[in-house]
Design goal:
CATH architecture of chain A: Orthogonal Bundle
CATH topology of chain A: MetI-like fold
Shape of chain A: flat
Number of domains of chain B: 2
Structural class of chain B: mainly alpha
Radius of gyration of chain A: 26 Å
Strand content of chain A: under 5%
Number of domains of chain A: 1
Low-confidence stretches of chain B: 1-5
Mean pLDDT of chain B: 86
Number of helices of chain B: 15
Oligomer: heterodimer
CATH superfamily of chain A: MetI-like
Largest sheet of chain A: none
Number of helices of chain A: 13
CATH superfamily of the largest domain in chain B: MetI-like
CATH class of chain A: Mainly Alpha
Order of helices and strands of chain B: HHHHHHHHHHHHHHH
Distance between the termini of chain B: 43 Å
CATH topology of the largest domain in chain B: MetI-like fold
Helix content of chain B: over 70%
Mean pLDDT of chain A: 86
Largest interface: A-B, 107 and 104 residues
Order of helices and strands of chain A: HHHHHHHHHHHHH
Distance between the termini of chain A: 51 Å
Number of strands of chain B: 0
Number of strands of chain A: 0
CATH class of the largest domain in chain B: Mainly Alpha
Low-confidence stretches of chain A: 1-10
CATH architecture of the largest domain in chain B: Orthogonal Bundle
Largest sheet of chain B: none
Chain lengths: 308, 283
């Protein structure tokens, strides 16, 4: 034990000296974490912004200022716009469905007393699973001839295709995997939100004449779930922007860039083509979207508390 | 309307049936990939591509598939890497976060507010953002393709600091004053007084840290080239590439093995998992 380094408060020193000792102890205790936070997180985050304004490629001996050239190049690059569109389509597909399904499941679980634990576990299991291993299972499930998806679809008389190799469906097939993993998370967050609603609100609503299930939902549950919903939407959206694993293992961004998303393009530019500065600029675009979502969340919750 | 009577009214019965039908179908869809994975891992190649899908195999191929999974690729090594890496990361995270959280929650010092603001800013940064500069840093240090390169970026968890700080704020000051009067130094207070009170929060954080880092694929994919250093998700990709998408039986056996630690841990400690994730939602 290195207790000796931090003298105890007895005998009590003068107040000034005590404050100085407390500050010294605080810096010693927080020091390692603060140092690591700057070298591993905040420093690199600033560095990525700086790097995006240069012309550096990995391994080059010299580095030159490039201003906004990388961003201009991006704006003129068809692949970037395809990638951005894919990312936004993916998010717009995954987020509403995950949130809506998560809410529905949470409401249905809470609406009855039987099998609650089983349903909660079944829907939550995908959240803890290793996405990468499960992606390989989905690859088999999407197999054009023996896959479970096509077998089921054919049996139901629905159209079948080679889901992951068809440019029209590949992004949505990946989105389905994303939804499969995201529903459980939004469900548990909504369950927590539902638990936090005071019971007597329903009683007073009943006195006011709102005693049907729909009326109860519309007048009590839904307004009270507002903050939870904003939170769930933000979390799900940020996680959807981070989609990478399924793209990297199942489609490599193909066919013909149909599933190329921001992080995957960043990975390719930065680590396959070693164009570090350009990849840094792509990272900044990605970071911009994530920060924008957080900012929207803060704005929405803020307004709420003002008139709540 | 449906004032609850002792016997179920027809409306209540219809609703209960609806509830179980929808949730039951949903559960089947959620669990189907796991069932499919295990089912295929038990089958010989001929049955996997059979025209009719059966849950259980006619001829069992457990030993062939699981044996192949462990022999053709160093699957045991991948699992060991997974445990070693997740353990090292959590140990470092706890070691750095606990003292820092205590200083942020209970000590008065100049720089406390600023430090906390930076912790909050850190929470906003997705882990992939730092990949390029960190890769360059690891390259400069000459530690690409080592355990250190995998572990270092996760050695600090701003989320852990934040969570522990929130928790420590609820610990009464009197407890700390009493400890000081007993002659304990600040360092000893962290480990002997604060840590024991924080065990539930620490377990919740430990579970999240384990889940995140066991499943992490992006960063290991970037820094690891050697097969013997690969954590499970990266290992299974090496596996899939080596088998070129034909040996589904062994591949699904490997996928089952990689999923097993998390799934088993979840089934045994559901409450902890769900509470932990609810506490955060982050990442």
């Amino acid at each position: 034990m290195v207790d000796a380094a931090f003298p105890s408060a007895r005998p009590r020193p003068s107040r000034r000296a005590g404050a100085a000792l407390e500050a010294a102890a605080a810096w010693t205790l927080a020091g390692p974490a603060v140092a690591l936070m700057w070298t591993m997180l905040l420093g690199p985050a600033l560095a990525v912004v700086g790097l995006s304004l240069t012309d550096w490629e990995f391994g080059m001996p010299t580095i030159g200022w490039a201003g906004l050239d990388n961003y201009f190049e991006m704006a003129g690059d068809r692949v970037f716009w395809v990638t951005l569109r894919n990312t936004l389509v993916y998010v717009a597909f995954v987020v509403p469905l995950s949130v809506f399904l998560g809410l529905g499941v949470a409401l249905l679980i809470e609406a009855g007393a039987t099998l609650r634990g089983f349903y909660r576990a079944a829907f939550f299991l995908p959240v803890t699973s290793t996405l990468l291993a499960m992606a390989l299972v989905f690859q088999f499930a999407f197999h054009p001839s023996v896959g479970a998806v096509n077998r089921t679809f054919a049996w139901l008389g629905l159209p079948t295709t080679d889901w992951l190799r068809n440019p029209d469906t590949a992004l949505f097939a990946l989105g389905a995997i994303g939804i499969w993993q995201a529903v459980g998370l939004s469900m548990v967050l909504f369950l927590a939100g539902l638990k936090a609603i005071p019971r007597d609100l329903y009683e007073s609503a009943a006195i006011d004449g709102a005693d049907g299930p729909w009326e109860r939902f519309r007048r009590v549950t839904w307004p009270m779930l507002g903050p939870a919903t904003v939170f769930v939407v933000t979390i799900t959206a940020i996680r959807s922007f981070q989609v990478f694993d399924t793209v990297a293992v199942l489609t490599d961004g193909g066919p013909n860039k149909a599933t190329s998303v921001l992080l995957y393009q960043m990975y390719q530019e930065g680590f396959s083509f070693l164009r570090s500065a350009y990849a840094a600029a792509l990272t900044c675009v990605f970071l911009g979207f994530v920060l924008l979502l957080t900012w929207l969340q803060v704005k929405l919750l803020d307004r709420r508390t003002h008139y709540a | 309307m449906d004032r609850m009577t002792r016997r179920m009214s027809p409306a209540a019965f219809a609703f209960a049936a609806f509830r179980h039908a929808v949730l039951g179908l949903g559960s089947v869809l959620m669990l189907a990939p796991f069932v499919l994975m295990v089912a295929i891992s038990l089958k010989p190649p001929g049955e996997i591509f059979a025209p009719v899908f059966t849950l259980l195999p006619e001829t069992w191929a457990i030993w062939e598939n699981y044996g192949a999974a462990f022999q053709r690729q160093p699957l045991a090594r991948f699992l060991f890497n997974g445990f070693a890496i997740t353990f090292a990361i959590f140990a470092l995270q706890a070691l750095t976060a606990l003292p820092c959280a205590y200083a942020l929650a209970k000590l008065r010092w100049r720089g406390r507010e600023t430090t906390f603001v930076f912790v909050l800013l850190g929470l906003l940064i997705p882990p992939q953002v730092t990949a390029i500069p960190l890769y360059i840093l690891m390259w400069q240090l000459g530690i690409l393709d080592t355990y250190a390169a995998i572990v270092m970026p996760s050695a600090i968890s701003v989320f852990g600091i934040f969570l522990m700080r929130q928790f420590f704020r609820t610990v009464p000051d009197d407890l700390i004053h009493a400890a000081r009067l007993d002659g304990l130094g600040e360092f000893a207070i962290v480990w002997r007084i604060m840590l024991p009170t924080a065990i539930p929060a620490l377990i919740a954080f430990g579970i999240l840290s384990f889940v995140w880092n066991w499943n992490e694929f992006f960063w290991p994919l970037i820094v690891v080239q050697s097969e013997e250093l690969a954590p499970p998700p990266l290992g299974i990709v090496f596996f899939a590439n080596a088998e070129a998408g034909t040996a589904y039986g062994p591949l699904m056996a490997a996928a089952t093995v990689v999923n097993a630690p998390l799934v088993l841990a979840f089934l045994f400690a559901q409450r902890w998992f769900i509470d932990g994730v609810t506490m955060t939602g982050v990442k």
